[in-house]
Task: inverse folding
């Protein structure tokens, strides 16, 4: 259980917090008796932080539950992903670098194939390759509708994201994918009378899109899924009194950070050192830095154990630049586990290192790795506890009760 | 907290899970500085599994709470015993091998002694010995009532269980035990108008029973407690998409398993090896096997440390038969602790071993015992987390969120 009113305990301070997230950090040994990716990596700097600080392991959602990246980050930011749902349409849009603001409606689109009678013969248009799908998305950009603006971007293969912006739009709409072949795509139907105008607009958009796609051999139709809008999360500034910045290379993570009101800083390059340089430059302007390293996850998903090890080592090598800034609290962790052995996100707890020279109670672990974290002084905690711990160690929380 | 909608994350798989429960497994050293029953037992097979797998300790209910066998198993099966109450009448009936189906009303009966004026002089009929009580229960079998069928079985000493079956029966009835001597047993009173017919039937049954018992020296009357019906638990198949089988020797455990829709397999003999042979034969027909070993608990209750140690050793010796089947997930644990030192169930956490060659993250423990489990990678978890963990390690759960 997480203390549910951290905001009420806030007290002013000038301390600085860095949350360094290596995506999918947690791993597994490839063979029985072996080491994990993090345990294999040579990480002298992190090992020193582990010796001086405290280790633990986090559950992003709960025991046995494998999180997507969206919910996993929400949890690290202290927003319960079981309570604050970020809709599929929003995540899809964020993932390709489109922002979704209050009042916008975002939706995920799938190209599909229909026969002459209009019934679906393939719900994914034969998983049309990206290079064939991208030009189709370009064509759909031509569609204009009265009173709203439209933004569309290709995601991958048959998938794209669409954002509609305008006055009085609502996301309470039924999906148009009938979830099976042999029937026609469904119309966009409003779940409430207030959403009828939005439904009508999306139906008009679909009609225009079908005209444009009519003569395509595979992707001659489309379905829309997961209508959603900005989840209206309380901004970091209000919730934690932190001026917060996001330093990330991939759109999805900038997007999730923007949902909680972080400033998104531009990164020139994409190495850990490039990202740390951005922190260096902006150091005086913010109280909280979220730094996101993507490639640990990418190589985990590829099953490339050695490449994941190498990314961790480049982070460690670059770390002195960050440490020279003298953060008051530095957390080094992942959002979830992505063991190369499983080639996917997993439910395994995530290594967690909390370093805070003035305030941390050190444990007896001196090496950053899964086994050490399982024996760390912090124990096993839900990722939701990370923000309260960060604020406390930064001396930004006052006493509860007299 | 346990993730509250595991069903929504299910994904098809052909993997197999074995839950091996040694009842009352957790123990205590008899003297300061000594070892527990499990630590004393020679368990080379379990120690190997511990080295390859992950250890932890479970709380069946919560810190300091000693569970009965019913709630302890409910928790291991993933049904919160604080939420899904299995009434005392149902547990008593299950405990003597009677099934309680939807619409049946089960109740626990106590023989008592009343004086000539009808007031209770002994609420337990002097704890009448089993051999004297059994013939009385036989006599009560003669009672017949219109429109319902009745099943009655002796439990132990002054206790028996009664199940009434028929149309329109409801368990919303007040107990008849006044909880003190010097007053008459209470009538069966309906708590709702709909239950009045059932109350009337039970009152008729009590009247008939009192006639039969009238000339008994001690057990000349009775009280009824804990009216209850089938708790209508969601079956394992619906909740977890698992075809589940129970391999147990004692009625109570078959009963609790039947409440969650497991198939109950017949066991020829009662050694661990006899039970494992049943699993061997049924291996292809099920995805989940619950195997229950009773005697660890029985000897714990007797205070027989050495005999409990020996039972654990016979389980370990038989284990290769189970391992040869190549389960994807094997959990070895208890439902609760029954330290021989205390001669009773206790609140102490329960040793828990999770072995899953393809997916487990091993910790640095290599010996199955209470001290090792307290230092295991899994930490201390509620038993409710066992099913999500089993499903995750069997790769039967998909991602939460995108």
Result:
């Amino acid at each position: 259980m997480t203390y549910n009113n951290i905001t009420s305990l806030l007290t002013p301070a000038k301390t600085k917090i860095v949350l360094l997230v290596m995506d999918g950090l947690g791993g597994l040994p490839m063979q029985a008796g072996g080491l994990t990716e993090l345990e294999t990596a040579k990480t002298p700097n992190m090992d020193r932080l582990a010796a001086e600080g405290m280790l633990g392991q986090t559950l992003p959602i709960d025991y046995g539950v494998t999180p997507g990246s969206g919910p996993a980050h929400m949890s690290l930011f202290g927003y319960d992903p079981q309570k604050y749902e970020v809709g599929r349409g929003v995540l899809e849009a964020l993932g390709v670098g489109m922002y979704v603001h209050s009042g916008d409606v975002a939706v995920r689109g799938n190209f599909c194939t229909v026969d002459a009678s209009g019934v679906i013969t393939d719900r994914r248009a034969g998983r049309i390759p990206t290079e064939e799908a991208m030009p189709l998305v370009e064509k759909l950009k031509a569609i204009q509708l009265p009173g709203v603006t439209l933004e569309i971007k290709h995601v991958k293969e048959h998938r794209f994201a669409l954002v509609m912006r305008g006055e009085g739009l609502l996301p309470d709409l039924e999906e148009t994918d009938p979830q099976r072949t042999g029937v026609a795509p469904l119309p966009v139907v409003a779940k409430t009378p207030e959403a009828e105008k939005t439904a009508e607009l999306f139906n008009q958009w679909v009609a225009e899109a079908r005209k444009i796609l009519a003569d395509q051999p595979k992707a001659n139709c489309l379905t829309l899924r997961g209508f959603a809008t900005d989840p209206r999360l309380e901004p970091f500034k209000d919730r934690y009194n932190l001026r917060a910045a996001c330093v990330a290379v991939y759109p999805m993570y900038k997007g999730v950070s923007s949902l909680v009101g972080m400033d998104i800083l531009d990164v020139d390059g994409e190495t850990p050192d490039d990202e740390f340089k951005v922190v260096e430059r902006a150091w005086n302007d913010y109280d909280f830095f979220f730094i996101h390293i993507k490639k640990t996850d990418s190589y985990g998903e590829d099953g490339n154990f050695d490449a994941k090890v190498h990314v961790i080592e480049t982070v460690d090598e670059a770390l002195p630049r960050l440490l020279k800034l003298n953060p008051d609290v530095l957390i080094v962790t992942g959002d979830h586990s992505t063991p190369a052995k499983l080639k996917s996100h997993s439910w395994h707890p995530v290594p967690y290192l909390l370093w805070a020279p003035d305030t941390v109670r050190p444990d007896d672990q001196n090496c950053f790795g899964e086994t050490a974290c399982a024996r760390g002084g912090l124990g096993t905690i839900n990722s939701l506890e990370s923000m309260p711990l960060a604020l406390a160690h930064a001396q930004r929380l006052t006493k509860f009760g007299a």
